[in-house]
Amino acid sequence: MSKTFDELVSKVNEFEMKKVAVAVAQDSAVLEAVKAAKDRKIADAILVGHKDKIQAVADEMGIDLTGFEIIHVEDDIEASLTAVKLVHDGKADMYMKGLINTKDFLKSVLNKEVGLRTGNALSHVCVFDIKGIDHLLFLTDVAFIPYPTLEDKVNIINNTLEITKACDIENPKVAPLAAVEVVNPQMPVTVEAAELTQMNKDGKITGCIVDGPLSLDLAIDPEAAKHKSATDRAIQGDADVLLFPDIHAGNLVYKALVHTADVKNGNILTGTKAPVILTSRSDTFEVKVNSIALGAVVAEAMKKNS
Questions:
Q1: Residue whose C-alpha is closest to residue 18's, from 291, 209, 296
Q2: Domain segments of the chain: what residues?
Q3: Do the beta carbons of residue 33 and residue 43 sit within 8 Å?
Q4: pLDDT on residue 96
Q5: pLDDT tens sequence across 145-187
Q6: What angle do CA 160, 166, 170 make, to 5 degrees?
Q7: pLDDT of residue 50
Q8: ∠80-97-27 over CA atoms, to 5°?
Q9: How far apart are CA 138 and CA 243, in angstroms?
Q10: pLDDT at residue number 218
Q11: What is the dihedral of CA 249, 220, 131, 148, to 10 degrees?
Q12: In whole angstroms, how far apart are CA 247 and each of 2, 212, 241?
């Protein structure tokens, strides 16, 4: 089981190097990340976009693109469809967003002919290595589904389990979060958290332990669980997965962590046939490299499962 992000990244040395197809690759931050990923033997890349612009950006950044396959497509939409088709056809293992707006990028992911749709809802997972917590923490959903319904939350859990399993966590503890750890009919997220817990007990959600509602401190701090006498809970400060009630809570926690805490993290879009790397423009270079590494680990797990 990978307990740190470095341990997770080291897993990529255990299998053949994966390949990521980049849509509209004339993006300085993305080129820097895929170059570093290749140099570190994490993943190779196929760069799809305007060849002259890709080269110009690389020259400006001092990046040597020797050895990279570049596919020249001038139109951004066509470039995204060309890139996602490489993954759809098995010529690449992962799909990554370059200099294209998120809406058009997601349209290519969901394209009926060449996309990566599975029929499942899409959701977003962030994997965190946080100083002071002795295991990886999976945050979901912080970037994709604004106000998840109960059904959405079931899908989010199932999507996340694919990622935890790829990281060798076989029976993760999932904490549906709320402001309080008791059911309050006036707080619908607590009711839904309890329903998810019951669905887990009834065998409708499998492959994990669900215990909610839980406040954040009870989910991640064993001392808080002791102080609150929560010794009867299935999760006592040792949650693996934090399931947020909505995108606001998730995004606020995500940004608080990356901007104030000592962390390493990578992000991935789930519910697709292959890993999709959808990072924010504000994400650092290292987050992008870590996300490629996470995608490679998940791609290998998908390959084994298929």
A1: 296
A2: 5-117+272-305, 123-260
A3: no
A4: 97
A5: 999 999 999 999 999 999 999 999 989 999 999 999 999 999 9
A6: 75
A7: 97
A8: 100
A9: 8
A10: 94
A11: -30
A12: 27, 18, 15
CA dihedral (173, 177, 181, 182) positive or negative: negative
Question: What is the number of H-type helices and E-type strands within the chain?
Answer: 11, 11
| pLDDT computed for residue 120 by the predictor | 86
* Model pLDDT for residues 218-239, shown as the tens digit of each residue: 999 999 888 887 788 999 999 9
Q: Any idea what the Cα angle at residue 6 is, between residues 95 and 265, rounded to 5°? A: 55
Q: Comparing 5-117+272-305 with 123-260, is the CATH topology the same? A: no
For residue 50, what are the CA distances in angstroms to 44, 45, 47, 76, 84? 19, 15, 9, 8, 16
State the virtual CA torsion across 202, 218, 171, 127 in degrees, nearest 10.
130
Query: In 38-48, which positions are buried (b, 16+ CB within 10 angstroms) versus exposed (e)?
Result: beeebbbbbbb
Are 6 and 42 contacting, i.e. CB atoms less than 8 angstroms apart?
Answer: no
- Fold for 5-117+272-305, please state it: Rossmann fold (3.40.50)
What is the four-CA torsion angle of 249, 250, 255, 261, rounded to 10 degrees? 100
pLDDT at position 283 is: 81
Quick one: pLDDT at residue 110?
95
- Position 279 scores a pLDDT of 81
Residue 45 makes CB contacts below 8 A (sequence gap 6+) with: 19, 20, 21, 22, 25, 34, 37, 38, 68, 69, 96
What stretches in the chain show pLDDT beneath 50? none
For the record, the structure tokens of 192 come out as 């839904």
- Written as one string, the DSSP assignment of 187-234 is SHHHHHHHHHHHHHHTTSS-SSEE--SB-HHHHH-HHHHHHTT-TTSS
Fold of 123-260: Isopropylmalate Dehydrogenase (3.40.718)
- How far apart (Å, rounded) are the C-alpha atoms in residues 209 and 193? 13
C-alpha distance from residue 10 to each of 32, 201, 293 (Å): 20, 35, 9
How many CB atoms sit inside 10 A of residue 241's CB? 27
**Three-state SS for 38?**
helix
